[in-house]
Amino acid sequence: MLLDKQDISEEKEIDTCPYCSGKNIIKKGIREKKHEDVQLYFCNDCNKKFTPGITKNKTYPLHLMLDAVTLYNRLNTLEDSASKVSEKYGIAVSKQNIANWLNDFDKYLSFGRMREYVEKNYDKRNLFVESQLAVANNKLRHEILQEFMLMNDSVTIATEVPVLLDKDDLLHYKNSLNFHVPITLEDEEIITGHIDIVQIRNGMIHILDYKPSAKKEKPIDQLTIYALALSRLTSLRLYHFKCAWFDEDDYYEFYPLHVVFKINKKTKNKNLKQQAVAVANCGSLISTAVACP
Q: Residue 6, SS3?
């Protein structure tokens, strides 16, 4: 499930006024709602108070509503979803409440368009494969996002995917595929990690990594290693992979083949040293990442 209690201190702070787009805003008290407390903000430019827009005019906490629609898209009935979420949070939720939320958040719930087909053609017991992983410093926001995307987004196929890259994998890329990979590993050395989200979109495999301050991050080397490891694990060509990191405001993507390139025989001896130096500094390749609004 998602989480049991939402603390105001864990909410993302608002930095722009929704009325005038001004930046001169301050926290201005707390609004006590029926089931939660909401932070109030005041804009010194237009003198208006406001709350985070997504919970505006909503009686129930956002995390409860997300949990409810996620339970429904786990192929539970409206009645069962209402019963389970009511028992979990100790708050009375009706099947009509959930039906309303499904309608309100419809544009975010692309799985809903195929839910009827999946329900008729697949056994719920075999539809979702889950395991418990011991992952250090796994933030609540990661867990909420991963759970929501996996259950409600039609292109998300896996979350928190463990990957591993060792010396044999690197030798395969270097010797068998003739790629230039700007890292080396000793016999007993391995690189491990966990991919936040894996999607299949438009014939491409997308590796997504959530970064709380995406604009300040440059995880190109990390995501490239994830792509190499997943490509090797699945025997799918690196050509079909795309990597991205994002937060609530920004999304940056790039092709791992822009970092790990196939050596051209004509230029192998002439330019290899120069290319290796350039690629080794993966941060300099930030210009290859595309910022999407």
A: coil
Query: In terms of residue numbers, what domain contains 52?
Result: 8-121
CA nearest neighbour of 74 among 115, 102, 104, 45: 115
* 142 inside domain: no
Rounded to two decimals, the pTM is 0.62
Q: Do residues 259 and 285 lie in contact, with contact meaning Cβ atoms separated by under 8 Å?
A: yes
The model's confidence at residue 4, banded by pLDDT at 50, 70 and 90, is: very low
Report helix, strand or coil for 276: helix
pLDDT single digits (tens) 58-67? 678 877 888 8
Sheet holding 251-254, edge to edge: 156-166, 190-201, 204-210, 241-246, 251-254, 290-292
**Nearest Cα to 142, choosing from 208, 85, 207, 200?**
208
Regarding whether 65 and 191 lie in a shared domain, the answer is no
Crossing angle for the helix pair 62-72 and 140-152, nearest 10 degrees? 40
